[in-house]
Amino acid sequence: MAGPKVAVVGAGVIGLSTALCIAETCPSCSVTVLSDQFSPNTTSDVAAGMLIPHTYPDTPIHVQKQWFKETFTNLFAISNSAEASEAGIHLVSGWQVFRNAPKEELPFWSDVVLGFRQMSEEELRKFPQHRFGQAFTTLKCDCPPYLLWLEKRLKATGVQMHTRKVADLWELRSEYDVVVNCAGIGAHQLVGDMELFPVRGQVLKVHAPWVKNFIRDGDGLTYIYPGVQSITLGGTREKDSWNLSPDPDTTKDIFERCCSLEPSLRGAQDIKVKVGLRPSRQSVRLQREVLSQGGVKLLVVHNYGQGAGGFSVHMGTAKEAARLVGECIAALQGSSSRAKL
Ligand code: FAD
């Protein structure tokens, strides 16, 4: 069999990282990314890109931890290389603060991030409305530069990228041996997944270069995440809302909430408002499926539904998707050699 042809549908952080892992683990594969939108027009471009995991209720915690650890290790290596600036990856230290001590004092990811510890009384004085806090150092992706850097790496590896809206995965059957579905919230329509729902997030991107540390309210709703180009102020979590238009009242509310955590933000300038739809499910859909019509088969790998934590787990889920693609290719090679006998 000639080198297997693999199509990856989607060019957000999940599609690009998955295409990269497939190209690296299967050098004989011809990999093509097909997407109706590329950076800067994806949900992934809106994200803050902080590596702080979100919990998927129906995915075992040890699996989530493994995905996070693989992602952290991979991006930590980039942050320590000469590529760090172009890739938009950097370490950032800060605080997660709580009005009351959380039930779980040690989150499952506490030994993956760096220097996780309880905040001291002196540090907590900065947050008079909060009684408990955790300090740690994690990584942040500046999302549009990171997506462009991934695209550049893909091109250098020989991966093709085409703008194309896929109406049905089956339409790719005549051109590709394996199809990988990384369509994010687009999978709702593409494969009719009714377990996938949008969680709308509105954020502000502001210029306030004096703010160097991240601050996250423990409920995860209000946050200040400094990047290289801008600071992301958040946010909202609106389940089942498909509305991509910014709401001016929400903008004011986010700004006020962030100023109550960091009053110096009143001097922030150049405020831009962004909205994105988190592709949310009870568990990430990371599995093989065989589509079949009239005795003809198409091997599919799904990798979508990372919800509020796509950046935090993308390399872990991409590696697992690439492993599943490897299984599909082994199955194809097995059936083509049996056909020759
Ligand atoms: P997307 O980026 O939406 O990419 C999907 C791709 O599929 C797009 O290219 C789209 O054009 C393409 N596509 C869809 N349907 C089709 C089709 N039919 N045919 C062809 N192409 C198709 N996560 C974190 O870990 N840390 C954070 O700090 C963080 N902050 C966030 C803040 C906000 C406001 C939001 C909204 C999200 C945040 N997230 C964060 C979550 C993160 O953004 C998502 O988990 C992640 O971007 C999902 O990536 P994706 O590639 O699956 O989806």
TrEMBL record:
**Subcellular location(s) of the protein:** Cytoplasm, Cytosol; Peroxisome matrix
Q: Report the source organism.
A: Corythaeola cristata
UniProt protein name: D-aspartate oxidase
Q: Where is the secretion signal located? A: 1-23
The terms under GO molecular function for this entry are: D-aspartate oxidase activity; FAD binding
Q: For binding D-dopa, which residues are annotated in this chain's numbering? A: 223, 278
**Which Pfam families did the record assign?**
DAO
Cofactor(s) in the UniProt record:
FAD
Its recorded reaction(s) are:
D-glutamate + O2 + H2O = 2-oxoglutarate + H2O2 + NH4(+); D-aspartate + O2 + H2O = oxaloacetate + H2O2 + NH4(+)
User: What domain of life does the native source organism fall in?
Assistant: Eukaryota
Record-linked Gene3D superfamilies: D-Amino Acid Oxidase, subunit A, domain 2, NAD(P)-binding Rossmann-like Domain
The EC number on file is 1.4.3.1
Q: Tell me which UniProt keywords the record has, alphabetically.
A: Cytoplasm, FAD, Flavoprotein, Oxidoreductase, Peroxisome, Signal
Primary localization: cytoplasm
Domain FAD dependent oxidoreductase intervals: 5-324
Question: Which positions does UniProt annotate for FAD binding?
Answer: 43-44, 166
